[in-house]
Amino acid sequence: MNRMIISIGSNIEPFHHIKVALGKLQNHFEVLSVSSLQTTKPIGIVDQQDFINGAVLATTNEAKKKVNIILKKIENEMGRDRTVPKFGPRNIDLDLLIWNDEVVDDDYHTRPFLQEAVKELQSI
């Protein structure tokens, strides 16, 4: 069984989209816990709504590559617009952060809100 932490964030109807995404994650993985949600300022393109961010602790029998495919599929199902700039607004953003205690997303090292969410979940 693989243990993972997935970041989750949104700045377009964030509470609605995060709730929907959590339901979809539960359809694919065993969700063990969800971190506290934090309001964060946008990075890069600052003329947009603040983001709501958190993380999800889950387990799966799937391989890491398959998990990433599932995360992108969920984003697509939810209407994620991939034509907006990298740091533009988004209805949902799901990224695999930690895979079996290994950091697999470099954003973890530069974004304190991700580190805080992971620390909260790793104490479980």
UniProtKB/TrEMBL annotation:
UniProt keywords, alphabetically: ATP-binding, Folate biosynthesis, Kinase, Nucleotide-binding, Transferase
Family: Belongs to the HPPK family.
7,8-dihydro-6-hydroxymethylpterin-pyrophosphokinase domain mapped to chain residues: 86-97
Pathway as given in its UniProt record: Cofactor biosynthesis; tetrahydrofolate biosynthesis; 2-amino-4-hydroxy-6-hydroxymethyl-7,8-dihydropteridine diphosphate from 7,8-dihydroneopterin triphosphate: step 4/4
EC primary class: transferase
Matching CDD domains: HPPK
Name of the protein this chain belongs to: 2-amino-4-hydroxy-6-hydroxymethyldihydropteridine pyrophosphokinase
An example molecular function term from Gene Ontology annotations: 2-amino-4-hydroxy-6-hydroxymethyldihydropteridine diphosphokinase activity
EC number(s) given by UniProt: 2.7.6.3
Lineage: Bacteria, Pseudomonadati, Bacteroidota, Bacteroidia, Marinilabiliales
Gene Ontology biological-process entries: folic acid biosynthetic process; tetrahydrofolate biosynthetic process
Function: Catalyzes the transfer of pyrophosphate from adenosine triphosphate (ATP) to 6-hydroxymethyl-7,8-dihydropterin, an enzymatic step in folate biosynthesis pathway.
